[in-house]
Here is the input.
Amino acid sequence: QVHLVESGGGLVHAGGSLRLSCAASGRAFETYAVAWFRQAPAKEREFVAASTQTGGATFYADSVKGRFTISRDNAKNMLYLQMNSLKPEDTAVYFCTAGARFSLLNHDRDLAYDYWGQGTQVTVSS
Here is the structure.
């Protein structure tokens, strides 16, 4: 069992930056792949970024590639999402997640992940 708690959300102007953090507690965080998803009002939850267990490989949605960076610190049981050049369409609740069923084929799908945080709100004003 892994418990995840996000922080770092808030209100920012377009073009600004935010860094989301996700603190993990429980079993062997380093054995899980991790990811960030987001859900905007009246929209389905969508994949943002993912990282393998060691952080050696990362994956991004096309909409955030070049602007967002996912990273993890297994020694601290932490996951991060650095978001730069934010746009109003990035407004959403952001969720961190960890999973043992991750693969290159499913890294952008909910089914790859077992544990989810409660989410943190990111609002980007124009």
